[in-house]
Write a structure and sequence with these properties.
The protein is built from 6 helices and no strands. By secondary structure, the chain is mostly helical. The protein has a domain at about 40-135. Helix 2 (about 40-65) packs antiparallel against helix 4 (about 90-100), helix 2 packs parallel to helix 5 (about 105-120) and helix 4 (about 90-100) runs antiparallel to helix 5 (about 105-120). It is flat.
Length: about 140
């Protein structure tokens, strides 16, 4: 992969991400105003929590699926195990807590989802397995 190809990939990623974020913010803003006007903001919080949770879990699946790419010798951009939807799930989960779902149970669920979304457990398990397989103690 040449440096020009790398820059093309970065440019494409930035365009897609900015477009997605702009569309998501616009959609969420319209939904927020509609639900607020209807007086059922908790419904929006529930939708955000479920949607954010699904995205968080899919991020963990995506990361686990691409773990072998880390040490493949490919350039950093192609070996990145990041999700195609970075921080979107976490943002939705945090927004749902901001809209009023603040019970301890939902905060505990949100904490687990945020850990999963950031790839913490995936990286930990991979490091443990890699250390075990390489004979490291």
């Amino acid at each position: 992969m040449s440096f020009g190809d790398f820059l093309d990939d970065v440019d494409y990623f930035i365009q897609q991400t900015v477009g997605f974020i702009f569309g998501a913010v616009l959609t969420l803003g319209v939904l927020g105003v509609l639900f607020l006007a209807a007086g059922v903001l908790w419904v929006m919080a529930a939708v955000f929590f479920v949607l954010g949770g699904l995205i968080c879990v899919s991020n963990a699946w995506w990361g686990a699926r691409h773990l072998p790419c880390i040490n493949s010798g490919r350039p950093g951009a192609t070996a990145n195990i990041g999700s195609p939807l970075p921080i979107v799930g976490s943002t939705l989960v945090l927004l749902s807590l901001g809209f009023g779902w603040r019970s301890w149970l939902w905060v505990a669920f949100a904490t687990v989802l945020l850990l999963v979304d950031t790839g913490g457990p995936v990286w930990f398990v991979y490091a443990m397995v890699r250390g075990r397989l390489s004979g490291a103690t």
